[in-house]
Every structure is written in structure tokens, then in C-alpha cells.
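Journal club side-thread
Mid-discussion, someone asked how the predicted structure for our own chain would compare to the paper's figures. Pasting it here so we can look after the session.
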Amino acid sequence: WDGDDETGLAGFADRLAARLDELRPGLRYANLAIRGKQIRDVLDFQLPQALEMRADLVTVCIGMNDMTRPALGFDRALEQLDAVYVRLAASGATVVTTTFPDLARILPIGRVLGKRVLAINEQIRAAATQHGFRLVDLFAAPSMTQPDTWSPDRVHGSPKGHMLFAAAAA
């Protein structure tokens, strides 16, 4: 994220919306993302809001909080992710989704999460293929292993990372 709570934050979705507005002036845009939420939260609260808007384009990047929390419910989170994708596919919107980067290459705890990253990425790729979603494969992107792509916490993107992500999604 760029900026702060007072000046405003600009993540990849905001940058993507600005880029698309250049191509189609008058674009209506809503960012429903809330940091810290898990897939269940998206399924129960954010997804119904998004579907109610009857959007032409939906971007989905969820699951990091489910991967990093040491709960036994990761398999359940994968089922919930599938439910999100099924409902989005039925909406008729163009859907852009993403895999997660190779956390073992950017976070000290990443090696511990390696199996979860591979599992969720496999499910994301399968859903993208099954439903005809556009996939931004961050796991395969060389730029995702560069330190300047990440904020100091190594969990959130830097301004450069958000620019690269938005460009890939456009």
C-alpha cells in the first residue's frame, strides 16, 4: 500500500481501477477489500456485496490470512474458496484471480507455509481453468522475489509491487 490512513492508501486494485479508467473513462469502482479478513469473511460478507453490485469485473486475491494462521481449518478454507469461485463464475462477471508468491523466498516463516502455498495455488489455478477466470500467476513471477517489490513487513506489496501487480492484471 502507498500512503497512510490519513493521505489514503493505493493498492493494486486502486491502481488497476485507475488504469482501466484511462481506457474507459467513467468507470465505477468499489474496493471491498479489508485487511486481515479470511476466506470465510469474504464468503459471508464481501461476496454478497460484490454480487449485489452486478460488477462487470471482479478481482479476487484472498487466502493469505488463512495460510498464515496456525489453525486446523485450512482444508475448510479451501472449500470456502471454491464456494467463492463458484458464485463468482455464476455471476457472469469477468474474474481476475491470483496465485500467491513463493513465500519461502521472501519470508523467514515461508518454508513452514510452503505446503499451504502450493495447495492454495493449485486450487486457484484449477478454478481459473475451470471457470475461465484470468489468472495472474504471482508464484511464477520473477519480480515477486525481489526485495523492492515488498513492503518492510514482507507480507504486503510495496508501491512498485502494487504497480507490477496492477499491470499484470490489466
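Post-session note: The chain is about 50% helix and 10% strand.
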